[in-house]
Amino acid sequence: MDTDPVIGIDLGTTNSAVAFLGPDGPVLIPNAVGGRLTPSVVGVDESGAVLVGAAARELRVLRPDRCASLFKRYMGTDHPTTVAGRTYSPEELSGLVLRSLKADADAYFKRPVTRAVITVPAYFNDRQRKATIAAGRIAGLAVERILNEPTAAAIAYGFHDEGDKKLLVFDLGGGTFDVSVVELFEGTLEVRASAGESALGGEDFTRAVAARVLETRGVAFERAEARTPKLVSRLIQQCERAKCLLSREESAAVRVPDDAGEYGPGSAEVTVTREQLEKWVSPVLARVELPIRRVLGDAKLTPAQLDEVILVGGATRMPLVVRRVAEVLGKEPRRRLNPDEVVALGAAVQAGLVGRSAAVEDLVVTDVAPFTLGVAVAKQFGGDMREGYFDPVIDRNTTIPVSRVKRYSTMVPNQTVIVVRVYQGEARRAEENLPLGEFEVKGIPPGPAGQEVDIRFTYDLNGVLEVEATVVATRRTVTHVIARHARGMTEEQIRRAVRDMDKLKAHPRDEEANRLALHRAERAYKELAADLRQALGLLLDGFEAALEGRDKEAIARHRAALEQFLSLHDPAGDGGDE
Ligand code: AMP
Fold it and tell me: Which domains are delineated in the chain?
């Protein structure tokens, strides 16, 4: 074993996972409750302690105001989330999830782990990648590499593969969708093209089902969300369960709580068939097609030229998704590895590479720039000069690391200064793209228009962009690193966040399973019929008394009884690990 292990982390929208490269290949590290996936949910319980993972997901059902989820969608923005009266940045919330995964790794290795490779959707822009690095730092992890999720999946497959291949990686997770063409060539893994949507995933399918279930009862979803949030959060949980069940059954029951979110006399039961589900989610499903066509177009491939289609992400367990992918590509997709785990496994292989593990010495990984990068220029139209056009320097889907130079000239006589404005995006007009930063180049020798300036863009594997401008006549160079100038957390903000997160109260790690059992039982209690409720109430009383008494043996005994009961009677019954 390497003396300084580097861990690979899949920081997902709905679930996260941590793995490392062992002597026989990548291995997932279990969390404090023995699960391999940790829900990306953060909560604060009544005692003011922070919960992460399955326990927080249970708490979310009863107390959505005390929990945050789906915050990955806000990475790279200033969007704050209020949890139990305190606001958190997206970096802090992700940092808390990472902290929990780091604690799992620390416990596994019996010493602190400080280095990690973290995956992000290929679609993440510069800011979102930097926010992910900041989240790692908040968790006490040095982020050695940011890796695209589809690249990680291809690594997990490619690691065991011999021979040259062209793969399409179709990754539909809880909240993000990526599709990439990855080429394996003489031991080199290269992403040829990536496309996707940063806000499309299994949760959208669940919400579509919930919306239609409410509609059948004459209630509009948005209205219900505003007026009866408890009803909606519990209905979504029911629909999530039904959706997963419908991946293997023909029909599933959904209990619709009353307006207060209770399963009292005002509640009802609706049966959803697989056929209904397929009809209801078809507008959501339709959205996967365009990115598939675009990625093939960008990679200049026809579906027939693909050797294999790999499915990644929990939502690819839905038969209708598999069918649609097969229809669009005319090829049956494969799913050799567990779709929920494959990204973390690939990240672990990459982490092994970073840690210079001998097992992966031969594997070279290249990646692509997910967006076009360029500068704003003025254009001459007849006698008219118009500003604000976007001129690409590095095209979308160029293999990185990459360095490209382009020559520009001054527009007016005696112009001694130019302002280099850097943008990312695909629009023809600069202002419609994302501004990444700007800087001045001074000292251009006075003279006629047309003095030349070379602008070099260097984009590295972490998505950090360095822009260098050189005045050709004088060789004077100005360098600008976008990493430091893009809006994002400053060093001081990260330090403050670390201090703030350190101050948060947390339960000891070995009590995590108790928290999960308690929150799950409390949630189930509200959902059960009277007779079962009474039985569960007694078990809960016993468990709480044991917790008060701090007698380890009694706690374990009461928890086992509680878990046994829940495994038989919990209507939501998803135990916290899928
Ligand atoms: P991931 O982020 O890859 O863990 O994917 C999570 C998403 O996969 C969630 O939206 C789940 O609802 C969905 N999912 C997991 N298992 C199944 C299943 N058996 N059938 C349908 N969707 C599933």
Answer: 6-201+287-368 (3.30.420.40), 373-484 (2.60.34.10), 508-569 (1.20.1270)
